[in-house]
TrEMBL record:
It comes from Carex littledalei. Gene3D superfamilies: Glutaredoxin. Residues 7-76 form the Glutaredoxin domain. One of its GO terms (cellular component) is cytoplasm. This is Glutaredoxin-C9-like protein. Belongs to the glutaredoxin family. CC-type subfamily.
Length: 104
């Protein structure tokens, strides 16, 4: 699911941090592929796998589990904390360009 698109966001509808990540990416001109796990068949299983992927790194888990989870260029970037850190330190846009999600 994550390797077929430049930017993929695994989300849960109604999650405010998921909304923040999606709005940031849209504001940068990226049209991410979004999977709303509460509306996807097998969403709980997908969320369990994402949790395992993130278990190697410190993850903030909220009421909606580990979402949002962002993949750029088929590679796991992380959750909202990692996305925001990359945005603030200036590394997010180059990652998006490298993945082909931005052209400018």
């Amino acid at each position: 699911m994550a390797s077929n698109n430049a930017v993929v966001v695994f989300s849960v509808s109604g999650c405010c941090m998921c909304h923040v990540v999606k709005r940031l990416l849209l504001g940068l001109g990226v049209g991410p592929t979004v999977y709303e796990l509460d509306q996807e068949h097998g969403g709980r299983e997908i969320q369990a796998v994402l949790s395992q992927l993130l278990s190697a790194s410190p993850v903030m888990s909220g009421p909606h589990g580990v979402v949002p989870v962002v993949f750029i260029g088929g590679k796991l970037l992380g959750g909202v904390d990692k996305v925001m850190a990359c945005h603030i330190n200036g590394s997010l846009v180059p990652l998006l360009k490298q993945a082909g999600a931005l052209w400018l």
